[in-house]
Amino acid sequence: MSNDVIIQGPGVAHAHDAATEHHGHEHHEQHFIWKYIFSQDHKIIAKQYLISGIIWAVIGALMSVFFRLQLGFPDKTFPIMEKFLGEWAKGGKLSPEFYYALVTMHGTILVFFVLTAGLSGTFSNFLIPLQIGARDMASPFMNMLSFWFFFAAGVIMFASLYVETGPASGGWTTYPPLSALKEASLGSGVGMDLWLISMVLFVVSQLLGGLNYISTILNMRTKGMAMTRLPLTIWAFLFTAILGVLSFPVLTSGFVLLIFDRHFGTSFYLSEIFIGGKALPHIGGSAILYQHLFWFLGHPEVYIIMLPGMGMASEVLSTHSRKPIFGYFAMIISLVGITVLAFLVWAHHMFVTGMSPFLGSIFVLLTLLIAVPSAVKVFNWLTTIWRGNIRFTVPMTFAIGFVSLFISGGLTGIFLGNSALDIQLHDTYFVIAHFHLVMGVSAFFGMFAGIYHWYPKMFGRFMNNTLGYIHFFITIIGAYLIFWPMHYEGIAGMPRRYYDYSAWESFKQFQGLNSFISIVVIVVFFGQLMFVFNFFVSIFRGRKVTVQNPWQSNTLEWTTPIKPGHGNWEGDIPEVHRWAYDYKDDGNGNDFIPQTVPLKAGEESH
Amino acid sequence: MSGFIIIALIVLVFIIIYQIAKASEYASVLRGEEKVKAQTNRTMAGLLVAFFVLGVYGIWKCHELLIDKMLPVSASEQGVGYDSMLKVTLIITGLVFFATQAILFWFVWRYQATEKRTSFYYAHNNKLELLWTTVPAIAMASLVAIGLRNWFNITSQAPANAAVVEIVGKQFNWIVRYPGHDNELGKRDFRKINDANNILGLDWNDTHNLDDIISPSGEMHLVVNKPVKLIIGSRDVIHDVGLPHFRMKMDAVPGITTTMWFTPRYTTEQMKQITGNPNFVYEISCDQMCGKGHYSMRGTIIVQTQAEYDAWMASQQSYYAQNNAAPAAAPAAGDSAKPKTDSVKVTAMK
């Protein structure tokens, strides 16, 4: 750990804690409900997002364990599944209906509830006011509403698991007509309605949050905090919020039309369908329209998930290498490039829908173009650690893992974005491997780096280091063992979302590999549970933080008290005099100069 | 009950691990934190490098184990371009992959913190930025060029002499229709669909339909070295005609007709020899999630020589004759019972 942190023996009383805990601007004691539940303090809301995200992540991961059991061992039964899933896994054998429900829910939960709400919800809320020098969000009340809309969305999604016909089961993309017609699938009944309602509430939550983040960053920076002095985390959160605000409404419009098709007899997505023994009256709709509306969010969503991790990895890599981030402006420009291009590449998910080949070629060009800013970021990260003085703290190992996984998962995007290759690889395990590495595990590594790095600021304690390192190695080794071989399955044409491959001459040869992957999944799952355990136990029993700035970092959040109250700073908000990355000799034997330190005479600003 | 015991046990194990981990941190204080910190740093740098080395070895092993399970040579002429393009992309991305990962882990080892080292204050260099903006841009441009050449080749108009075969997806099987002697597929209308005797909704007023041949089992016969254009449709939800051996794929969308064309290069028999697998069969997989039976939506393709194909075609009876023939045609009535039971079963599954 950091030089200045002294471990307190178990018996040492912390008399000074009481003094640091209750200060801030509101000296009256708030009731528990207003302080911890309907709180308007951005730090509490961030923790609420984080803890909800963790709970959802455990649920989503457990689902993947269940369907991996089916994929790995299609001829065996697992009575424990019946305990969890009841009738859906009678005798310990997962039913196909619920298999599809599980993959659908796994995707929805991980993409939206964990890697959107749990990731940018947590860190945008926590870091924006602290790092720009604001006492709270522009609208703390809207911020609170944002969390509670997310909470309501979560309750409805969770309730849909218990509906008699099961939750939505048409894949997380819920393409109509499958998702529009209850005759088409059990999951397209009430479960689908609940899914849509939950998602609309979720979008409301994202918009409330996103507008807040943008206005806070633009308007509430402290004196001296020019946009060009912002840490890259804040730039990343800004663009994440812009992406969300501009693309989530389009998704909502797609959902509203789907609700109309489901219940009010319209034909936006339906045409010439014979199902359940009869021809439906719908004519003239286009099922492809939904895919355009969905992916207009769906692709920016990928960057909504990636950008916060990129921002946090930049911050963590720089701090723990004791070096400025390399190419600060190039990093911002590449974020701009990614944000703009993110809106112009959505149809690369639809190369095989029969779209015009000319249109397809435009999307190929734009998609491969987006690899350029991503490559710039990778090279800048590498140069950041070059000739550094790297401290392998737990957050730093995760940030290095983030870069490694981002390279691995990013490069396979070049295959999928090139339509001529995508024809063969589309909807195979190659896609699963690609997006799990890049926006699944890599984004998670950004999140873990963030959690381990800012945990001391959140809870005034450290998480256990040893467990952190174990967690890191289990996760990175597991992730590569699970997803690397899937590229081979995909190149061999093995389709995704299959319940059982044993009837297929071309794909049954991978049964042994599937079993291997499933076993690794179970190990990794318990590795994550260990992280969850470490997280919650450390809140109460972790080593106490005894210095204000344990990582010797430059950014503003480390100028607040160890346990900041509502309002963050006790006295005036500090003034900022320099950029966030002055990791150099300060003349007093330290290798960092916080943003609050005025420039010395003759010193050039970066 | 046993569930609770298992959960209790897991929690217990975690508590024990946590306590051990915590104790080890206290122990490190006793040994002097500075020393332990330096040691941990060395250990972690070493472990990360070990991870990289073992990872490269693992990649090699994985490749050795799985390379035999890859698809055989492309069964279509159009897929040959795909195969070479895949190889080029693999080489380019593979080089970048190994170079960047090696640099990452080399830096991890080389620049681990020591007491003597101070970091090098190096904030920006526009020449470097320019270098690694333009080089990837050029690489991408060349990949786009190769890709679009193949893409326009694959999506071009089918040649005029191409055979036409229709394939229609429904939950959960494929239906194949051949145009018959007149070489023309008749009109169909989803409102005329009847699972008993008109599974594709053929319009009997259109005489082109009368000689059309339907295979309700999803078995498609094609002629080797003769281009074929697939007319793709769906009766209910979105499906996808996936032909991994031919490197082809196209969605089947209700209300929209999509097409794709290709030229088979090897008969099924030849492919059995190429793969050395006597059970080899060209499979049609559904590659778009279509409901609970998605994984079982399997069709097959039998590629034959022209002579074999003609012989097979001659033995087929038109769908119209099967379902509307005079009662006197006893064998035909027997045949028509088959699709009938199939569709009844499928309806029951829903």
TrEMBL record, chain A:
The lineage of its organism: Bacteria, Pseudomonadati, Bacteroidota, Chitinophagia, Chitinophagales. The chain crosses the membrane at residues 49-69, 98-120, 141-163, 194-214, 235-260, 293-313, 325-346, 358-382, 394-417, 429-455, 467-486, 516-537. The keyword Transmembrane helix applies. Pfam families: COX1. GO terms for cellular component: membrane. GO terms for molecular function: cytochrome-c oxidase activity; heme binding. It is found in: Membrane. The keyword Iron applies. Belongs to the heme-copper respiratory oxidase family. This is Cytochrome c oxidase subunit I. Coiled coil: none annotated. Residues 28-577 form the Cytochrome oxidase subunit I profile domain. It comes from Taibaiella soli. It is a multi-pass membrane protein. Keywords: Electron transport, Heme, Iron, Membrane, Metal-binding, Respiratory chain, Transmembrane, Transmembrane helix, Transport. GO terms for biological process: aerobic respiration; electron transport coupled proton transport; respiratory electron transport chain.
From TrEMBL, chain B:
It is an enzyme of class 7 (translocase). Its EC number is 7.1.1.9. It is found in: Cell membrane; Membrane. Binds a copper A center. It catalyses: 4 Fe(II)-[cytochrome c] + O2 + 8 H(+)(in) = 4 Fe(III)-[cytochrome c] + 2 H2O + 4 H(+)(out). Its main location: membrane. It comes from the Bacteria. Coiled coil: none annotated. Subunits I and II form the functional core of the enzyme complex. Electrons originating in cytochrome c are transferred via heme a and Cu(A) to the binuclear center formed by heme a3 and Cu(B). This is Cytochrome c oxidase subunit 2. It comes from Taibaiella soli.
